[in-house]
């Protein structure tokens, strides 16, 4: 993944809104956004009975393992994964090579609807993460210290 990404409140709010909307639009039980290092970024839905720390870590491990399998057969990665259980199913997709969007759903919805809604949410999240990368890569842009000039610093320490 390379560089550590700094999360700003504006983007964090947008990310949470996308996850909330995806939960409703896909009729999902839970939506998680996890970085490839295993850190939970956002969650929406019925998360109260889920160990989110373990889910985030296992998601990252699963993506890493599947990436290894993909390379063995000549693929870059498997960007989408679907796991069907007796009661619940899980769909994961890699967004912008940085994060993993995880949707847990049951028989109240269909895989087709989940995939359709994930596509739109992934596009939105990709744009949000692009703006975060630009903020991180451009010194001072979006920084709380951007409006402070050298004169302001000199004045602060001159007394």
Q: Largest sheet at a glance?
A: 5 strands, antiparallel
- What is the number of E strands? 5
Instruction: Give the overall average pLDDT.
Output: 87
Distance between the termini: 45 Å
Radius of gyration: 19 Å
**Helix and strand composition category:** alpha+beta
Strands ordered across the widest β-sheet: 2-1-5-4-3
- What are the secondary-structure elements, in order, as H or E? HEEHEEEHH
Give the fraction of residues assigned to helices.
40-55%
Count the DSSP helices.
4
Runs in which pLDDT lies below 50 for 5 or more consecutive residues are: none
- Tell me the fraction of residues in β-strands, as a range: 15-25%
Overall geometric form: elongated
Compact summary:
This protein is α+β, with helices and mostly antiparallel strands and 159 residues long.
What does this structure look like?
The protein is α+β, with helices and mostly antiparallel strands. Helix content is 46%, strand content 19%. The chain is built from four helices and five strands; from the N terminus they run αββαβββαα. The chain has helices spanning 9-25, 52-72, 111-137, 150-157, and strands at 30-35, 40-45, 80-84, 89-95, 99-105. A five-stranded antiparallel β-sheet has the order 2-1-5-4-3, with helices on both faces. β3 (80-84) and β4 (89-95) form a beta hairpin. α1 (9-25) packs antiparallel against α3 (111-137).
């Amino acid at each position: 993944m390379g560089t550590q990404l700094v999360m700003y409140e504006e983007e964090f709010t947008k990310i949470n809104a996308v996850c909330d909307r995806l939960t409703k639009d896909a009729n999902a039980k839970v939506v998680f956004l996890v970085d490839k290092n295993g850190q939970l970024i956002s969650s929406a839905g019925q998360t109260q009975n889920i160990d989110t720390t373990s889910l985030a870590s296992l998601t990252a491990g699963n993506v890493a393992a599947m990436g290894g399998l993909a390379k063995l057969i000549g693929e870059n990665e498997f960007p989408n994964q679907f796991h069907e259980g007796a009661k619940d199913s899980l769909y994961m997709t890699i967004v912008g090579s940085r994060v993993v969007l995880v949707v847990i759903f049951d028989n109240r919805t269909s895989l087709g609807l989940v995939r359709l809604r994930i596509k739109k949410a992934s596009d939105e999240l990709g744009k949000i993460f692009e703006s975060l990368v630009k903020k991180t890569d451009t010194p001072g842009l979006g920084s709380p210290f951007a409006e402070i000039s050298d004169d302001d610093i000199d004045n602060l320490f001159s007394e």
